[in-house]
Amino acid sequence: MGLHGYLVLWCGVFGALALVGYGRSLAGMTRAQRTVRAKGRIERVDVPRHGSSPREGISVVVSFQDPATGQEFTVTNDGECGDLIDVAWTGREIGVHYPPGRPHAFRFAGHRAEGGRGLAWPTFALFLVYAGPVAVAAIERGWPWALVGFCGPWALSGLYHLPGNMRDRNRRLDELAGMACVPGRVVAVLKSVSTDDDGHTSTRLVPVVTFTTLDGRAVTAYCESGLPDPAGSRGLDVPVHYAPEDPAVFTLDVGSMRRSWQWDKAVNVVGVLIVAAAAVVGAVML
């Protein structure tokens, strides 16, 4: 079978997968569409034990109500329970997801979000269908077709999303200017040691900081940046800057975070320009 035969097979297989995926989404049968999404409320927060693993997350007790039956449940995040809870306070709302009729198979989501349509894999399959002809064109007619075929749509997508990304970064920079500052304290340092396939070990240290917002919310949170010596930071008093509307957005170093977001803006712009320039070069060389 020649190159074009493989191309037909490639496009046929992934095209069928895409059609099946989009069909399931239209019928409301995807896992994302069937998942029950309830509102959970943190009822109790326990400070992590000094020296324990950061993979466990902050221990919390969460209550939620099953929308189908109205039954109330009170659960903890012991074991594998979805997203890691790394910022918590009593009264914080989080998402609780589970299959229909199985609230005991719950998973936590750090932020409440509307359910998707389950189109990630079908869209990826559709991209592979598109990538096949582009790859064959690049092999048969030269590399400029790869630049036009891949960088062109990527550049158009980047240009489409760039204004929204810039507005989001500017909003975050404005959010930094409106942060409140309160005293905080490092109450524990969590530690995990991992070994790779070559036998090299790496250590991860995660300080845990507590602070009380101006409206009385006692927050416990992982704090992986802003401390020069995480290993010896237990018991250290630190200033904490947080967003009044969402204490989960906080930092110990406003200047460093501002520079990070400004750098992120620059990277977004430069990235789009590079991809667009590559597409133009490919079009000129055709």
Spans of 5+ residues with little confidence (pLDDT < 50)? none
Radius of gyration: 24 Å
What level of helicity do the residues show? 40-55%
How many β strands by DSSP?
A: 11
Tell me, what's the shape? globular
Q: Biggest β-sheet, characterized?
A: 6 strands, antiparallel
* Arithmetic mean of pLDDT: 92
Total number of helices: 5
Query: How do the helices and strands follow one another from N- to C-terminus?
Result: HHEEEEEEHHEEEEEH
Strand coverage percent? 25-35%
Strand order of the largest sheet: 4-9-8-7-10-11
First-residue to last-residue Cα separation? 28 Å
Structural class: alpha+beta
Report on the structure:
The chain has 286 residues and is an alpha+beta fold. Among the domains are: 1-34 and 115-141; 35-109. 41% of the residues lie in helices and 28% in strands. It is built from five helices and eleven strands; from the N terminus they run ααββββββααβββββα. The chain has helices at 3-26, 31-34, 120-141, 144-177, 254-285, and strands at residues 36-46, 59-65, 72-76, 87-88, 93-98, 107-109, 180-195, 201-212, 218-222, 237-243, 246-251. The strands form two sheets. The chain has a six-stranded antiparallel sheet with strand order 4-9-8-7-10-11, with no helix packed on it. Helix 1 runs antiparallel to helix 3, helix 3 (120-141) crosses helix 4 (144-177) and helix 4 packs antiparallel against helix 5 (254-285). 21% of the residues are buried.
